[in-house]
Amino acid sequence: MVWVSRALLVRQYGRFMDDLRIYVKGGTGGMGYARLGGAGGKGGDVWLVADEKMTLKKMKDKYPKKRFVAEAGTNSSIAALKGNKGKDCEVNVPPGIIVTTENGKELGKLDKEGERLLVACGGIGGCPVTNFLPTKGQIHMIHLDLKLIADVGLIGFPNAGKSSLLSKISQARPQIADYAFTTLSPEIGTVMYPDRKQITVADLPGLIEGAHANKGRGHKFLKHVERTKQLLFVIDVSGFQLSSHTPFRTAFETIMLLAKELELYKEELQTKSALLAVNKMDLPNAKENFEKLMEQLQKPQNYLHLLPQKMIPEVTVKFREIIPISAHTGEGSEQLITCLRKIIDQEAEEKIESYQREQLRALHLSKI
Description:
The protein folds into two domains: 19-146, Distorted Sandwich (Spo0b-associated Gtp-binding Protein, Chain: A), CATH 2.70.210.12; 150-351, P-loop containing nucleotide triphosphate hydrolases (Rossmann fold). Helix content is 24%, strand content 22%. It is built from seven helices and 14 strands. Strands 10-11-9-12-13-14 form a six-stranded mixed β-sheet, sandwiched between helices. The radius of gyration is 26 Å and the shape is elongated. The termini are far apart.
């Protein structure tokens, strides 16, 4: 039996934060000793260190001023002509962070526990090159942008049943209700298989039409999709309507809209491997609706002309598997979990084979 332990495997963020702006400053170098040619110590550096126990919310609470300054280097003196380096400042951050400067320059990423990133160098100590005067450390205002890393990201409009699906295949208890936007913050769970293989699944806030233009939760949702390895579309077999003031969309239209929103946000998302879970198969007329949807997906070109041009994606999504499910009754959940494992294992094998081919090719070229 595949299961998920919420207590052990779900990262809990509390009041979820996925971006934080902080001030970092490398330490000033120490003063040189011109008369004896002594060099001051280098200022300390500021490093970010990935820590799975840390969240951006915890950082903000622990360091409300959001200022991180390394220690200055010590001055040169008669007793110690070479000054000591200032102490580095290490800042724990959650994995999944992309670090950028105020002008948008990317400084680096931190994806795994223990990874380190230098974000502000300390100044040089006074020496002959600097006329024995110390230099100041680097100063930056940097942005910590959290993009969740998961094997599978659940994609769907509000009320598609993503949270219900997660609660069915795991011991998680996300908020579930029959109104839009019950999932207001991302949550990650890990599916554990009998052979101890684990797959992480991210339950993400629901999209709406116009999300690519930052409507609704917009970019706050879409940026987390970027770093998931596999997309799992979850749709209501009966169709979707956000409110009485918005158009009703059939299941086929829903898929096209989701694909279009991803495409407009970032074209690279079109290349991600995707599965489709057709939910709420326990409802009346679900079987007939599902059969109609399958017919439309087999030959989508025959139906695209019925849609408004703005709803038609440049590239039609090709799902590796289409699975009818009921998050309410559990129908299809075991098949879905098995498919996720199969596809992720296949992709891992393909990456290994691709790497081996590249290594052989490089070896061959080196012998020419």
